[in-house]
């Protein structure tokens, strides 16, 4: 039984937070989604814009969330309420915490289904289900896997059960312990897969695809996808990072840990690209295959290669672990809110959450078979969960976090918590006041269909970037800083 008098749990090891937050950030988004959207939107230019979004929006918002968590020492609901109260802000801001907590939970409801694909593909690899399969067979296997609700439900249920087992054990014995071996293990497996890809003959092409800047090839849609994905991949605005931040010891540096997490997340995404594309290119496949890229093209490529089954197994073990370390962070907000406010033990909270999660994720799973025709405005339930969270709740939550920190909270509070030098503090403030809100508003204007935001990526963009960098450099001057901070 947890009571109010017990101090809140903290990460045990020096790397506890960084590993857990990186585990949350690195997931299906990095290994499944990043490669296929990079493929769809044409490679290098997309990667460049994505990196800019991580730097200008992702990192400042992540620092803010960690600071909220540590200052408020609670679940998103409690932490946001506390920091707002400390600054005398309005109580409506606590909606932000509720939305974040709900958002993390809703993401997991469909994420569990995709993670279930990963587990089931691992099983198929182990049992040799792909032997001798052609491209058409691969599509058939993918569809058959979805078509049977008992099969698909088995795998998503497994994901829910394993997630709740880990979370139920607690912050240190459950989350911290599991990420401390899964994360290093994942990186080693990814490195082995890159080496394998390097010898497959497609490495040079993959490298050029990812890193050569091809001006003019990026659509406005691609730029919006880059910004949206920056939020998704860093697990922002969904309560995960904020809750993990609430276990961060007071002496840890928020800026340094944020940089480590964002850098590791980006590195893994690029590494995943470098592991997957060589194999795709070496087998003469197209990089723009969409969501089926790693589930249909990749197993096909593996089975045509020497030792392919072995490396295919390695790939899906890695993917499943990446998915699990993310899943556990999505329910942690809810579980910590229940233990803090409802006087239940962590185990009870975890199983209670798990049951609701199981019901909703099962409904999401049914969208692929029995309830495939069960649509509302053209989307079935699975799509609704994805659409509502990534198009609405995450951008809205990110906007709220940025505005709250930039305009509402007392400036001493964030300055204290972030512990930045004046120059870096000014940069952070500039980002949460102007850069992040502006970027997010652009997504909304586009999503709402108010206006199609049209911009191609041309050399004038680089000029604009240069102007921005000059402005940012100017912020380092004391005069401008005073103007900004009042
Ligand atoms: N970052 C995760 C990934 O890349 C996905 C994700 C989005 C997430 N929001 C989250 C994970 C919230 C945990 C919590 O796969």
Number of individual domains: 1
Would you tell me which CATH topology applies?
Amino acid/polyamine transporter I
Name the assembly state.
Answer: single chain
Low-confidence runs: 1-5
Inertia-based shape: globular
**Can you list the strand order of the major beta sheet?**
1-2
Bound molecules: tryptophan
Strand content: under 5%
Helix content: over 70%
Description:
There is one protein chain. The chain has a two-stranded antiparallel sheet. A hairpin with a 2-residue loop joins strand 1 and strand 2. The N terminus is likely disordered. It contains 20 helices and 2 strands. 76% of the residues lie in helices and 1% in strands. The chain has one domain: Amino acid/polyamine transporter I. The chain is mainly α and 486 residues long. The structure holds tryptophan. The site of tryptophan (TRP) has 16 residues, from helix 1, helix 2, helix 5, helix 10 and helix 14. Tryptophan (TRP) binds next to helix 1, helix 2, helix 5, helix 10 and helix 14.
Structure summarized in a few sentences:
The protein is mainly alpha-helical and 486 residues long.
Chain-wise SSE layout:
Layout: H1 16-25, H2 28-40, H3 44-72, H4 76-86, H5 94-126, H6 135-147, H7 149-168, H8 171-198, H9 203-211, H10 220-233, H11 240-245, H12 254-282, H13 293-303, H14 308-341, H15 346-366, E1 375-376, E2 379-380, H16 381-408, H17 411-418, H18 422-447, H19 459-475, H20 478-485
Antiparallel strand pairs: 1-2
Bound molecules: tryptophan.
